[in-house]
Structure prediction request, 477 residues.
Amino acid sequence: MLHQELSLKLQQKLSPQQILRIKLLEIPELEMEERILRELDENPALELGGDPESKEESLEEEVEEQQDELDLEDYLQDDDDLYGNREYDKNTPDRRETFFGSSALSLRDFLMQQLDMQNLTENEKIIGEYLIGNIDDDGYLRIPLETVSDQISFQAFKEVSLDEMHKMLKVIQDFEPAGVAAQNLKDCLLLQLYRKPKTVLTEQAIHLLEQYFEEFSHKHHDRILHRWGITREEYDAIVGEILKLNPKPGNAWEGMPGESGKQIIPDFIIENIDGNLVLSLNEGNLPEIHVSSRYLRLLQDYNASPHKQSEETRNAAIFARQKVEAAYWFIEAIKQRQQTLLSTMQAIMDYQKEFFLSGNEKKIRPMILKDIANITSYDISTISRVSSSKYVQTSFGIFPLKYFFSESLLTDSGEEVSTIRVKNVLQEIIDNEDKSKPYTDDELEKIMQDKGYRVARRTISKYRSQLKIPVARLRVQ
Prediction:
């Protein structure tokens, strides 16, 4: 017996407009200008400049309202030329960039540029190059100056004194970003405070770090209050000022793991204006575009008497309509991209408000893609596309959006904290360990548990690796 089986398959096929919107959403600020310029190159119905005057706007409306028998669907399907990824080689104009992170260079390259601008002797230049070469991705010079001096002696065949080394180190410590080339956390924070305008609060913060850093780093706050003789309210304000500083000034160049040296231009800017967070898109150099009035008039002329036109004119009208519709799609896709980006970043900013106000990484809340999807009503894939390659500029530095997404961990007290906070605690423990006898992962596990964090040894090892901290035997000094 023969059996016949009817199988129905429902297959979702994305329209060219949907594909375009998805592609534009994935593009970071760095590439968006080039994408618009490429579209201008490929579509003659697009022109540079703001919206035309009302005369041209009314012309657009007239063309949209008119109907003709042209069926353009066949012409608009799978338009590889329009939506493809053809290479585009054109010099782009300067962008709006700020020093903290918007750099086309790696941190060391950026420092070398500043070194080249100094009036230095040959010896000073060599010392500066070696010092910069030993600065790590966090922006610290963690090895002793004697070691750098030995490198210069053996590799550059130059004998340099420690006084010369100290002199050049101070030169580099005046470079951007503030706090760079510090040899420890205390110096890093002080270097940043020294650059701030002199106020009572900054002077007090400097005094706290200079006189009580050991107690401060071990959170012996009551001891400091007793010795200094200030009120708790005054002390909290001083600590708040210190928490605004960047403990890792090189992190703006580090970006995401494996991207050292990648050009970073922020997609968003968050400003703290009198305690109010203000969000904006960083699109200062994106070209303004509009639909060509010449192409709109061509269609208007054709639509006025389509049956009296030649075959050549008809083909020209088909081409013009194809390009005009594609131009409208592109402009609308850019508008939708802007709205989606702003809505998503607004949700992230509101969710992590305490961090964006203070810069204190301990204030980062556990947050997953689904949390933001629920707030914005976008699907998770949309949130993922927005956060995967976008950056936000704050007064504390530039951060990849995916930095703010983390799982949660429950402490012994029942508090839900982000894994970012757990890593920060781990980093702090290692920063303050006895360098002659660093903690093993087993010891770190016990210390973390004593602090209330239920973290297994294998998790300690994983977090340590993610923080680029070597094992104990390699941390011995």
